[in-house]
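Example (one chain per record):
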Amino acid sequence: MKKLKNEKELIKKAIALGMIYGEKRGAVQFEKTDSANEKIEYIYRLLVHDKLMQPLPEEQVSQQSIRHKLAIWASKQKT
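Predicted structure:
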């Protein structure tokens, strides 16, 4: 897995877009006390559930791989 050039910024963008998507959909209400890791995992699972993203094989699911996958997703989103 090759790290993206601006992966940190893309992760921030993915969290912001994912939070908006989840709340508009009515699937989640994020709290200020939720950690970034919790948000990232929930957003990933929601996007996979809604078939907006291909799932990783369950044995490859980790915070690092989820972050990378969300960064790729965010890079393809129009803002």
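Caption: The radius of gyration is 12 Å.
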